[in-house]
Amino acid sequence: MVADNSNLEKLLKKYDRPGPRYTSYPMVPVWKDDFGHEQYIRALRNASELPDEPLSLYLHIPFCRKRCWFCGCNTTTLKKEDTHLSYLDFVDKELTMAVKSLAERRKVSQFHWGGGTPSCLSNESTIKAFEIFSNRFEFSEKAEISIELDPRVTDDKRVQLLKSLGFSRLSFGVQDFSADIQAAIGRNQDEKKTIDLYKYCRSEGFEGVNFDLIYGLPQQTLDVLKSTVEKTIELRPDRIALYNFAYLPDSKPHQRLIKPEDLPSPAEKLQLFLTAREMFLESGYKLIGMDHFVLPQDELAKAQAEGKLRRNFMGYTVRAAEDWLGFGMSSISYVDRSFAQNLSTLAEYEKRIEEDRFAVYRGMRLSEDDILRQNLISDLMCNFKIDISELESKFSIKFDEYFEDALEALKIFEDDGLLNRNENVYELTDMGKIFIRNIAMAFDAYLKNSDLKVKFSRTV
Fold first, then answer.
1. What pLDDT, in 10s, does the model give residues 230-246?
2. Under DSSP, is residue 413 helix (H, G, I), strand (E, B) or coil?
3. What is the DSSP pairing of strand 55-61 with strand 323-327?
4. What tens digit of pLDDT does each residue of 205-228 get?
5. Best CA proximity match to 367, nearest among 406, 401, 387, 338
6. CA atoms of 453 and 460, how far apart (whole Å)
């Protein structure tokens, strides 16, 4: 349980500020535009020297039938049905270039489809997309193959097809069951259809089903969100992501369709999160990271208990490979200790691939300091701790000397009851888990750069 509301309000005023979500470190805005085709090929060739190590794969499907007003994804409206078929031809070509550099490294432990709306593909395109990868890579027997679903464009036949192809995990875009909230975000998703599809997935034998919910949406009151949480708990999905709505109308112009006055205040938004959080925890779910919940028998909960939980751009996982490859428009790869991101518009991506060049337009190769901080922040975000002895042994440092500049901030977090140091381990308190992004920021070497021009979502 967390502290009283008056203390929380004080901490909110103190720590509620813009900051990175740390799906990666270093954060995307500091990647360099001099990392492109040649640098990515070099990284792939270096990665090929470990042929027995598995890979994680990501496919970005950048299409939606209609753009939802809250969306922060790189996507485009699908106007012609044959557009996705031609797009997959470019993905096929990108993949051909990648496997040429990867040589014999073809084992896969994780394969995720994101978007956009991957389930808006036709059955024909779904099969084509899957075979582009399965014809070139070898999926391990226990590989996690997952896809993000929009219940509005997913029917029983699509679920059957996904099962036959070998998909093992489905992520439902729910956001909020309330019809009023759906209308306020331009989505209009029927509650009954969502629930019926969920039950059908269970009847087809899917043991891995996730729900994506969002708090802080326009017109979302505490009673409305509680109703959604109650229905979710009753359905009992294996995993729940409770995302903070990031209102960034300057960088996401379509969000201007949402009226600022319809959004909850920062204090109201925190109460939405804390109430949902408490409801999930009291119903038996375990907290994973800052905003995910899983059933206690889930492998993520077991991995966290052992301090082995990991995270990448595809989410929390126990099957994350050291290297992961992203394919398609705007996708991100991490290969040979280097980040690489593809161009973020369809025309630019396809033009670059047509020229027989990777569509990478920015990235960076990580320094030893980057790798050290990446390990620390990842462990903090996943396992709620900083293991000083482990870091000192792995990186041959003296923690208190190396992170001398961060110790003052850590002391402030300790004084506020967010962090405890027990011998050689820092551990987050229950309250500290709410402000985990703020604590991670203390170790971010790039935030000190006064030239960094970027707008982050708020930390709470």
1. 999 999 999 999 998 88
2. helix
3. parallel
4. 998 999 999 999 999 999 999 999
5. 338
6. 21
Longest Cα separation, the chain? 61
Q: What is the pLDDT of residue 3?
A: 46
Instruction: Supply φ then ψ for residue 304, to 5 degrees.
Output: -65, -40
Question: Selecting from 3.80.30.20, 3.40.50.11900, 3.90.1150.10, 3.30.70.260, what CATH number does the domain 30-324 have?
Answer: 3.80.30.20
**Identical fold, 1-26+366-447 and 30-324:** no
Interval 283-295: pLDDT, tens: 999 999 888 999 9
Kindly report the backbone phi and psi dihedral angles of residue 80, in degrees, each rounded to the nearest multiple of 5, phi listed first: -125, 140
Separation CA 106–CA 48 (nearest Å): 9
pLDDT in tens, 150-176: 999 999 999 999 999 999 999 999 999
User: pLDDT category, 355, cuts 50, 70, 90?
Assistant: very high
47, 103 in Cβ contact below 8 A?
A: no
Give CATH for domain 1-26+366-447: 1.10.10.920
Residues 276 and 240: their CA atoms lie apart, in Å, by: 11
Q: Which of 341 and 64 is assigned the larger pLDDT? A: 341
**SS percent in the chain: helix, strand, coil, step 5:** 45, 20, 35
Mean pLDDT, residues 81-108 taken together: 92
User: What is the residue extent of each domain of the chain?
Assistant: 1-26+366-447, 30-324
Please write down the long-range contacts of 158-162, taking CB distance under 8 Å and 24 or more positions apart. Answer: 158/119, 158/123, 158/126, 159/197, 159/200, 159/201, 159/204, 159/206, 160/204, 161/123, 161/126, 161/127, 162/126
Contact between 291 and 241 (Cβ < 8 Å) = yes
Specify the range with the lowest mean pLDDT, choosing from 13-22, 400-409, 416-425: 13-22
HSE toward the beta carbon, residue 315, CA cutoff 13 A = 28
Q: What are phi and psi of 62, to 5 degrees?
A: -90, 35
Q: Which two tokens stand for residue 194?
A: 């969502």
d(CA 122, CA 143): 24
- The SS3 call for residue 174 is strand
E strand or H helix at 414? helix 404-415
Three-class secondary structure of residue 287 per DSSP: strand
Instruction: Tell me the C-alpha distance between 259 and 225, whole Å.
Output: 19
